[in-house]
Amino acid sequence: MTQTILITGGAGFIGANFVKQLLAENQRLVVLDKLTYAGNPETLSLLGLQAPHQFIQGDIGDRPLVQSLLAKHQPTAIVNFAAETHVDRSIDSPAPFIQTNILGTFNLLEATRHYWRQLPEAQHHSFRFLHISTDEVFGSLEPHDPPFCETTPYAPNSPYSASKASSDHLVRAYFHTYDLPTLITNCSNNYGPFQFPEKLIPLVILNALEGQPLPIYGDGQNIRDWLYVEDHCRGIHQVLVQGIPGETYNIGGNAERTNLWLVQQICTILDELCPGSPQVPHANLIQFVHDRPGHDRRYAIDFSKIERTLGWHPQESIASGLRKTVQWYIDHRDWCQAVASDKYQRERLGLQV
């Protein structure tokens, strides 16, 4: 029998890439997305999402809607990507992050708990609720600190990371209090196709192609562990299928790099792929800008648990993943223009990861 998976936030960056991977599986997908600025039906259309799969525009915080979807489609699993995710936006306006990431997750959990309790015994035991989170909940690392592992204490430093930490705690609590079979994944910085163009990598690519400044916060020495989104989605799928309820799994890219190195590497790739561009060398467009408040210095992920227990490891290196990503944005300028509103275009120079 074909199983149904409810994917919340499936029109966003990581969610859409996960939908893309699962379209090849013998499963029916129900995608729920609020379609805020970062979620776009253009993405799902490009992926070819069509019957028997279904898309519903809606909010995970709308409990009656979620309850009706669960009753109608009877999913065997829920994968929750739905979240507000941009740190700069959380500093400017934290309220949407509290509303979606905390209250939205709570309402989704409550609807799921009541649905799961009435399932027949076989489905009751096989059901899974997988919550997608971030390494930012762990705070900031010093240069020689060991990478974050699953037992690292939470120490969020932005409204965004604090709201995601809260949602993680709720998911954990629903496992320990109600036995709801939940799983949590915490990932490092993702990059790849379909990322909204305010994030660092697509922002740099698109600004460079247009001859616009490439803004880098502070001294450019902030370090992130970069994870190619398709590798991340493979890890999510393995956790969904093989993970042990109640467990948390870190998913990382084994690619710690400074922001300055990353931007310089993108410029080098663009120089190679667009040798006739009047912007060559693109690195001349780099500009250092005032650092943002509470900017974490370093993130790094220890993914040895998922590698040891589930056999997952990243397949893309930072070199191969970046080249694929730059080429994708060069080839999909129409998509970038379609998802970027006029307001976003006016704001673009001031936004980063």
UniProtKB/TrEMBL annotation:
Residue ranges constituting the NAD(P)-binding domain according to the UniProt record: 6-325
UniProt-listed Enzyme Commission number(s): 4.2.1.46
CDD domains: dTDP_GD_SDR_e
Superkingdom field: Bacteria
A Pfam entry, by short name: GDP_Man_Dehyd
Family: Belongs to the NAD(P)-dependent epimerase/dehydratase family. dTDP-glucose dehydratase subfamily.
GO annotation, biological process: nucleotide-sugar metabolic process
Single Gene Ontology MF annotation: dTDP-glucose 4,6-dehydratase activity
Cofactor(s) required for function per UniProt: NAD(+)
Name the UniProt record assigns to this protein: dTDP-glucose 4,6-dehydratase
Entry keywords, A to Z: Lyase, NAD
Reactions catalysed, as given in the entry: dTDP-alpha-D-glucose = dTDP-4-dehydro-6-deoxy-alpha-D-glucose + H2O
Residue ranges that the Swiss-Prot or TrEMBL entry lists as coiled coil: none
Lineage: Bacteria, Bacillati, Cyanobacteriota, Cyanophyceae, Synechococcales
EC top class named in words: lyase
InterPro entries (alphabetical): dTDP_Gluc_deHydtase (IPR005888), NAD(P)-bd_dom (IPR016040), NAD(P)-bd_dom_sf (IPR036291)
